Amino acid sequence: MLRELGAELRETPFGESVAVDGTGRTSVRGVRAAGNVTGPQEQVVNAVSRGYRAGVAIGDELLLADPEEAVGRRPAG
Predict the structure, then answer these.
(1) I need a labelling partner for 65 at 20 to 30 A (CA). Which of 9, 41, 55, 59 fits?
(2) H helix runs in the chain, sequence order
(3) Cβ-based burial of 51 (10 A; exposed 0-12, middle 13-18, buried ≥19)
C-alpha cells in the first residue's frame, strides 16, 4: 500500500522498507509508518516504541494545526 501511495522506499539487507524520519513520517504527506514496515529486522519493543513516537507526533500536529486548514476550509453544513 505504501508503494502505491508513492512512499519513498529504501533497500536493506532484508529487502525494501519504507523510509521514515524519527517520528515515522514518510515521504507521503499525512502518512506515518512504524514497526516492521520501517525495517524488517525490528523487534517488538522497537516497533512499539516507534508506534508510540509516531502517535505522539500526530497528536502534537493535531493540537497545533489550524482547524480550517485541517478540514480543507469546507463550509459548515
Answers:
(1) 9
(2) 2-5, 44-64, 67-70
(3) middle
